[in-house]
Design a protein that fits this description.
This protein is α/β, with parallel strands linked by helices. It has 2 domains: 6-62 and 334-426, Alpha-Beta Complex (Aspartate Aminotransferase, domain 1), CATH 3.90.1150; 67-331, 3-Layer(aba) Sandwich (Aspartate Aminotransferase, domain 2). Helix content is 36%, strand content 17%. The strands form 4 sheets. A 7-stranded mixed β-sheet has the order 4-12-11-10-7-5-6, with helices on both faces. Substrate binds at residues 54, 147, 277, 310, 394.
Length: 429
Amino acid sequence: MSDNLDWFEFDKRHIWHPYSAIGADLPSYPVVSADGVRLRLADGRELIDGMSSWWCAIHGYNHPQLKRAIGEQLESMPHVMFGGLAHKPAAELGKRLIEITPGPLQTVFFADSGSVSVEVAMKMAIQYWHDKDQPEKQRFLTIRRGYHGDTFGAMSVCDPDAGMHALFSEILPKQLFVDAPSCYFGHPCKGDGAKALRKKLKKNHAQIAAVILEPIVQGAGGMRFYSAEYLKEVRSLCDQYGVLLILDEIATGFGRTGKLFACEHAGITPDIMCIGKSLTGGTMSLAATLTTEEVSNTISQGDPGLFMHGPTFMANPLACSAALASLELLLDSPWQERIKAIELGLQNGLAPCRELPQVDEVRVLGAIGVVELKRPVDMKQIQPCFVDAGVWVRPFGKLVYLMPPYIIDGDDLNTLTSAVVEVVERCPI
């Protein structure tokens, strides 16, 4: 294929993109390189990235430390099966993850992606109760407006009505849902904030394996921020009614909300935690599911005496090496101060949107800024407006949001927020 844009034309005719149609007349842009917080398009334009490539490229692009880690691992062993073999990058990464996550989480299962880590968590919960001689506990309870991934188990605990998976409702396992909490982050939950959850648990706990939640921030289901008090109450209710608590930290983990993990806002520990996205700094696909020794020992000592899951590329050495380098970069940096600076920049920069009649709400938490509109955006109209403004922002539904790389400076952040204000105010959406 030639060095011109023939490849791009092929792409449009033959290659699926996320939530897309082949041949759809929607804006798409050929990117040829990325460095720092900038994406370079084939026509020479550079865009400041406000998405961190769906929230994973927290150190920006092309970081030399991440490239070096991958290059060094590539020289010795790019991949080896994890069945019957072990390697140092996985052991070192597992040790590091156990050190930085809440104390009771002591065992690690490496997966390929966030959706798979959720599938693994759900299978762990079911197998745990099977080995506790309670095989009837096979359902999951969650809150509406959640999103946990696109595979079948993960889809079943996403919002069944307002989510993206209603088409598959008849084939998905039937889970239990309650309304999402109405108490905002930073505010108390008045009265019994988890009354609906309590009622559902009281009635159905004998068949519920686990409650699964995105802690504090509901991501792709609506970018809602809810009270830490609610999360505390959920933990207490899970203990009271004898169900496990799964926390999906795939989007919130590694500093995005101002805490290393969002559950730290509530000072609680889950029984099972899912992590992914920014784990490798956006370089390789890798996720993990961590759990307690109670869960892992019960499964390991039960019937059939092993956990029934094992991806082909589990614990890929390149990905593990990238994750170790990414964690070192993050934890050796003043990441808390950076997140606070981004939070302040988002608060100040997006504030003018509150005065616009088409805006319903503006909310900011850590390195997440959200402008919620009164009606859904038209992607054909709004995407080119952002590109023309020199930024990469990818809205969905009613939400125009920013989750920039942590390395972004004040000037670039100001350009991002100014573009959001300008596009929301002037562009047909």
